[in-house]
Amino acid sequence: MQEKSSEAGQVNDKQRSICFFGEPLLELGCDTFDMLSAKVAGDVFNTAVYLKRLQLFSKNTGRAGLFTCVGDDPLSQKLLTACAQHNIDKRWVYQEKSRTIGRYAVSLDDKGERSFRYWRNDSAARTLFSRVSESVAEEIAQSYEYFYFSGISLAVVENHLRDQMWQFFHSLKSKGVKLVFDTNYRAALWSDAKQAKAEFEKAFNLVELAFVGVEDCQPLFDFNYGSAQGLISIASQFNCPNLVIKNGDKPVLYRGRHGELSVSLKPAPKVIDTTAAGDSFNSGFLFGWLSDAPVADCIRLGAETAAIVIQHLGAIIDDKLFLTGIEPVIYALKMAGEQNNERLLMPAL
């Protein structure tokens, strides 16, 4: 039977708080398969960690939580320890005795581009929706304003549990929770592209905000190769009111309730490891979004956050390195916002 890890205290204020659903993984080093040196990562976990760092730096009252399942073995315990270390709410991290946590190894080329090898067949996250109920949806809705998931989150759920997953998502939305989706497509995790496309379309029709990658969607949807405009035209056919189109180092496009705009990206001074580039972009954007910042500033903060992360090795870089890099970025955005009488919830630096 499953157990849910405990979290001291009950927080009632859910404003600017977001719960992340996905599969945490142990990241093995590029040149070692030593489990003792493994670090916790995974796409939604990476985003949660960087968002929480931004919240702490800004003295923001928002919270970041994790909704997933791991085993009760020593490897899975690393996830619970990491949640505490990174100030991630772990009230909805379940434990399954017969399963464990997924693992992956990264290989990097001389440009910092990565390839992956995974071991996730026994991942407990795959079975999460066999053990959640309507009461869990109610608890999460009472604690969080937003709920975030990715294409990988969708892919790892066992096929016979997909109906339960979508029922859970719809229940959250009916209770006022705003859903956020990041495409993050990995072909190897799906039965075929047709299945992935169908699940992505369901997500686009349900969520409030979607991060849509051109590279992710190219194998799934019919648009001109590399065309962000072509993709935004397709994505706009669904019911998602806010679309953020990412296209590598090309300008980020936004179309939604706040109009339409394009924001050019400043390249990072150097590129060491792009493993968490998209994840960290999303964290910066979400921090601005939850702080009611202008969309252009959300995009810039996302891009600057990613630029800091990819200059260092690993999905989750040292917190001091991160904060040293992000402080001048936030300060500059804060000053620009004050000059334009725009609201951005930042610390008094």
Automatic annotation (TrEMBL):
GO terms for cellular component: cytosol. InterPro entries: Carboh/pur_kinase_PfkB_CS (IPR002173), PfkB_Carbo_kinase (IPR050306), PfkB_dom (IPR011611), Ribokinase-like (IPR029056). Residues 39-317 form the Carbohydrate kinase PfkB domain. CDD domains: KdgK. One of its GO terms (molecular function) is 2-dehydro-3-deoxygluconokinase activity. One of its GO terms (biological process) is DNA damage response. PROSITE patterns: PFKB_KINASES_2. It comes from the Bacteria. Belongs to the carbohydrate kinase PfkB family. This is 2-dehydro-3-deoxygluconokinase. The gene is kdgK.
